[in-house]
Design a protein that fits this description.
This protein is α/β, with parallel strands linked by helices. It has eleven helices and 14 strands.
Length: about 350
Amino acid sequence: MRVPFSPVGLHRVVAPVGVLPQAAERLDTRREVWPDETRVRVERLNLDAASFRQLDETYDGDGDRLRAAVLDIVARRGKMQNPETGSGGMLVGTVEEVGRESPLGLRVGDRVATLVSLTLTPLVIEDGLGRWDGRSEQVPADGYAILFGRSIAAVLPEDLPPELSLSVLDVCGAPALTARVVGRYVDPVVAVVGGAGKSGSLSLAAAKSAGASRTIGVVPQPAEADLLVGARVADTVVVADARDPVALSEAVTRAGGPADVTVVCVDVPGCEGGAILSTSDGGTVIFFSMATSFSAAALGAEGLAADVTMLVGNGYLPGHADYALSVLRGHPGVRRLFERRLMSADAAKLKP
């Protein structure tokens, strides 16, 4: 018998010993499954926005160099975890083998999206990412990944294209937590920074469904404002640089704020102060960005004498996958934003 296995994957940690898989420098990627594990044949990776942006900027949009960097990370670490951002993404694939003690309820042949980060998922790439040009967050791939006993995966719905489902499930924690927090207030004003993005548009729709009296969508450019207005999930759309604290708070105030709940869904650093200034006393700020600095948020709130609760979205709530998909189905404007993003990514692939 091999070493005892752990439902959180401690037996897959190669170094340093004793840490959880997410904090590990390297994971064991052997294909044989322990009794509570599941092996998935990978079809597509979805790199998280902060990680892809950092890689794209580092390699000046050179797809070949970016692809080589991702392959190097996975080969060295046994998982996809960007060493600069600490983030990874998720994947879509087909269940290949299920351990006899697996509690996930999956069957061989199920097509699934993993709802746990690639930063803790043992991963092997076997095709050299030859079908990926490095210009999109969604990465066609062939290989395998290992899910632990406490991993989470969702069987893909049959009524939605897999690429669309993957995009939604990649951020499904955001609308679920937004709805939970908004539901704790009476007729709150909700501001979503990055409202035209994936997590932002879903969070705006969730806030409205959960009882927000006013929803404010904040975007950085007029073109995004036009898109968000067309989506019909924000009562007011404003253009502001989220990295400029005064400009952001003034824009939110003019739109009907300060907000009782502010949700940060942008993948650039330096947005903590503006989010805090945009939130009323007794309000809540939810950070759904891998670019968030804990020290900047904590010290910024202290320095501003801001009586706000700050939450870090951890990407999981019970039922979050089904909820996010239901939000997409119930809001045609949000679906159009997602589909436009996917079409833009496809168009980018055709450019020389």
